[in-house]
Amino acid sequence: MTTRAIIPVKGFENAKQRLSALLSSEERRRLCQAMVEDVLIAVEACPLVDEIMVITNDPAAIELAEGYGALILPEPAEPGLIPAVVHACQTLTQAGIDQMLFLPGDVPLVTPEEIEVILDGFSPKGPGLALVPADDLGGTNCLLASPPGVVTFQFGIDSFRKHVKAAQAVGLEPTVLKLPGLGLDIDTPDDLKRFMDRLAFQGTESHTYRYCVAIDVSARLSSVTGGGL
Fold this sequence. Notes:
Layout: E1 3-8, H1 25-45, E2 51-55, H2 59-66, E3 71-73, H3 81-94, E4 99-102, H4 112-120, E5 128-133, E6 140-146, H5 159-169, E7 175-176, H6 180-183, H7 189-199, H8 207-214, H9 217-225
Parallel strand pairs: 1-2, 1-4, 2-3, 5-7
Antiparallel strand pairs: 4-6, 5-6
């Protein structure tokens, strides 16, 4: 069974606007690049992933992804995450890929072990779907689909619950896993604070953490929030 991981990257420029009160445009760009690199490192290190594909038109993202041996799929003409994932799904189906593992580029705490947990415990006799929700059970931070187009994609607000309903609508009961690394996606200052708090005493060498330390994100968070969020 062949598994291809797909990572949509819409572009580093002008990304993560909800962090604009904390970080400059250039800092947000570099933060996004660091997060994508951490995701690529985790996926590349997981022995159960056969191929990586990054969906992007961003030259910096293309250069970064190719450094990790990833395939590049240009973004479709229609903007948005759902069109990008549908485009990837169609490409994988045409190539005869059995399983599609969707990961966003802003989950820098993901580990190879978490990805292995998802894949190792997934052996449906027929079509199947596995979901990893965000910590608040709102978004979908990882999706494993076999075959790639097994359900209609529901990314956006409350996508986790919508994906569960979409699976049930076609007679599937999805596997749901809550995983601490994948559960945290970085969109807001609160997310960034949780990220820094979790890694502060671990001596991590993640690209995202090192960049946040380099620009003293913790001090900025304290200044913006008056010492806490």
